[in-house]
Amino acid sequence: MRGLLPFLSQRLLRALIALWLVSTVVFVVMRLSGDPVPLLLPPDAPTSEIMRVRKDLGLDRPLPVQYAVFLKNIVRGDFGRSLHFREPAFSVVRGYLGATLELGLTAFFFAALVAVPVGLLSAMKRNTLLDQAAMGVALIGQSAPTFFLGILFILLLSLKADLFPTSGRGDWKNLVLPAMTLGAFAMASIARLTRSAVLEVLRADYIRTARAKGLGEAMVVAKHTLRNAAIPIVTITALQFGTLLGGAVVTETVFSWPGIGRLAVQSIYNRDYPVVQCTVFIAAVMFIVINFAVDLLYGVLDPRARTG
Amino acid sequence: MEVTRRDLLKGAAALGAAGALSQALPGSAQAQTTQKKELVVAQGGDISKFDPHYSTSSNDIRWSFNIFDNLTSRHPDGKLYPGLATEWKLQDQTQWIFKLRQGVKFHNGDPFTSADAKYSLERTYDPNVKTMVATVFTTIDRIEAPDPTTLVIHTKKPDPLLPARLAFYGGQIVPKKYVEASGNDTFNAKPVGTGPVRFVSWVKDDKLTVEANPDYFGGRPDFDRLIVRAIPETAPRVAALLKGEIDIITQLPPDQGERVAANSTTRVAGALYAGLYVLGVNSKRPPLDNPLVKQALSLAIDRELIVKELWKGRGIVPSGPIAKGDNHFDPKLPPLAYNPKEARERLKKAGYKGEEIFIETTVAYVSQDKAMSEAIAAMWKDVGVNVKVEVIEYSVRAQKNREKSFKGLWWADPTSTLGDPDGMMWRLLGPGGIMDYWRDPKFDELGNAARFSVDEKFRGEAYREMTRVFLENFPWMIVIQPYEDYGLQKYVEFTPNPNQQFEIRRFNFKFRRA
């Protein structure tokens, strides 16, 4: 059996390599995308003006030098200054992080709390009207484009029914529509996977044994079924969680939610290298942390995973 | 199947009708008056900077023109009015004397004097400050502030448009003492001006809050607080207006205007854009180097159909390169003609052999650009032109613009921030301008002479002659002069400005009270 320390240090090393790779790819891709300076200046600015601004921003130096400076600064936690906002990139991204976490966590809990019971119930009541209705809704949730769903919610639940505000960030009411929109896909995937995982387990011999020895159905579900179906459910849930935090671009745009997804896309259009680099770096850190947490959770859920 | 222009426009019309059917009308009370003390405005993009000398983006200057004042002010009627300067006159061709307003205070209480004005204008081209408006005042030689209420500006050559230049971006007056003491970054984060609103707070991509400046020299605005929100998508922006969450929305596209107008509590207010939507032409690339080919292309565009179907009537057919409303616009000139038969003849005369002509279109760089590209391509195909439409991204357009590497035609929205042909066709098409792809000795001679003349009669004749040369050579394929539309609650009285300036002053904004 392996100790915890080698396990942790190995994970840490892998995480650092992943972060280095991600940062390098973003650095290269952003420079390939073109020159940010023409976007900062009026269209008729003379070439001398372009050269001056390029020099000020350090963009006139050779790429390897820029890369070395970039790596050196990242190690010190310095992501440079936003070209667009004229302030440190990290403080720009930090300003958006709260909104993203708020929306992502709400959507996630909303999705998980609805999806797991629905999936479980669908599996238990297989092929009934309830199962078919639930899976039908899940299919829609999984296949409707986020953009369409968001606008639909705005038209029906906000404009027509007057239940929630149309967009923007404010109190809990502002959170409902974007969280539903963002959580729809995750909810549908989790519900469908829960259903199939539970069905799989229900066919297993030990369930038959449990029932044969006279255990109540509630006990069978709680103790034998759910626990054994947990691994795939946790895996997909965690994957969805990562996506919810990083991939909310469309939802954030439709509901004008000030999160990092929208920031990242706008910064790409503005060729704001430092902000894009910082956003991707932070998103990568979040993914790595979630994956790590899931690995630890596997150990708790399944003793076999502990021995590796 | 070949899609003809008519099919395409029918399709566009059907889409528009579907949009009108899907609208959800709130059935609530007809609020035509209000007791509101807070004005909420939503625009299509967020603010990036408050320092007025660090941005020329329309999402930024809408607000910097309200936090700050300029020496001169261009009102919605297109004329220049006093701003922080009460009067100005020209002496000896190159010397402008400005009398400044007395008793004006910045939001932090500091008095406004000629020292602030001198500092602000010099700051725009100070190489150490590295502003984004360093090219606005290149005609200025030196500035003097002989006493606190007098400013003297010496220009290098006669500059008839200096007062107009002072009214637009770069011309906002900033407080010398505060900027010097606090530094550029603090000033950008906590801007202080003399304008009708004072900065309170800003949450990026969420909202800006400003409050009324009770001591504003032009009168306190008709609200206590003004909230500006960024709602990038059109559908949610319109929904927020229809629901009554927002009082004014900017950038209302023509297909949504009908929805806003049909709703019982909202209306549309528009101003004719102080410029034109054109396809720029790379006249160096055959066959676009042949004036006959370009004349044919112009004759083959049914502009009235475009205005009617794609713009729902929210635009006019231009007559030449001077926008309606600008200095020296000739009202006697007829709208650009549509004559496909003549177009075919001129193509034949030009010896056109089916060479490819490219439209490199953006999507939403200007409103309706992609739809107009497709409609125009279909019209050109109808007269036998081999046209290809390619879609390019906004930043690629910026790069091609800089490198002058467009393959054929591309969308542009030339405007004169000065309300004058010098600031539009001559600035853009003149030698070294960003749309310099074509030269004509007569055009160049007249453009140059008009730039440095303070004789308006001479200038008028020069621009008439330049227009004539233009209409033989078509360095731009002019398409439409559109309206810039805003969606308003009916209890809002607001007159928009044609040049995307969004000034909220007593003369153009008030709430309708019961």
Structural summary, described in words:
The complex is a heterodimer of chains A (308) and B (514). Chain A is mainly α. Chain A is 78% helix and 0% strand. In chain A, helix 6 (129-143) packs across helix 8 and helix 10 (217-246) runs antiparallel to helix 13 (273-301). Chain A is flat and about 85 Å long. Chain B is 31% helix and 21% strand. Chain B has helices at 5-21, 58-67, 114-124, 162-165, 176-182, 184-189, 234-242, 254-262, 291-299, 303-310, 340-350, 369-382, 394-403, 425-429, 441-451, 456-473, and strands at 38-43, 72-74, 80-82, 85-91, 95-100, 140-147, 150-155, 197-203, 207-212, 225-230, 248-249, 266-272, 277-281, 315-316, 357-361, 387-391, 409-412, 476-489, 492-494, 509-511. By secondary structure, chain B is α+β, with helices and mostly antiparallel strands. Chain B is built from 16 helices and 20 strands. The termini of chain B are far apart. In chain B, strand 15, helix 12 and strand 16 form a beta-alpha-beta unit. In chain B, strands 1, 8, 9, 10, 11, 12, 13, 14, 15, 16, 17 and 18 form a 12-stranded mixed sheet that branches. In chain B, strands 4-5-7-6 form a 4-stranded antiparallel sheet, covered by helices on one side. A two-stranded antiparallel sheet of chain B has the order 2-3. The chains are: A mainly alpha (308), B alpha+beta (514).
Q: What's the topology here?
A:
The complex is a heterodimer of chains A (308) and B (514).
Chain A: H1 4-32, H2 37-40, H3 47-56, H4 63-75, H5 89-124, H6 129-143, H7 146-160, H8 172-202, H9 205-212, H10 217-246, H11 249-254, H12 260-269, H13 273-301, H14 303-306
Helix pairs in contact in A: 1-13, 5-6, 5-8, 5-10, 5-13, 6-8, 7-8, 8-10, 9-10, 10-13, 12-13
Chain B: H1 5-21, E1 38-43, H2 58-67, E2 72-74, E3 80-82, E4 85-91, E5 95-100, H3 114-124, E6 140-147, E7 150-155, H4 162-165, H5 176-182, H6 184-189, E8 197-203, E9 207-212, E10 225-230, H7 234-242, E11 248-249, H8 254-262, E12 266-272, E13 277-281, H9 291-299, H10 303-310, E14 315-316, H11 340-350, E15 357-361, H12 369-382, E16 387-391, H13 394-403, E17 409-412, H14 425-429, H15 441-451, H16 456-473, E18 476-489, E19 492-494, E20 509-511
Parallel strand pairs in B: 1-10, 1-11, 15-16, 15-17
Antiparallel strand pairs in B: 2-3, 4-5, 5-7, 6-7, 8-9, 9-10, 11-18, 12-18, 13-17, 13-18, 14-18, 19-20
Helix pairs in contact in B: 9-11, 15-16
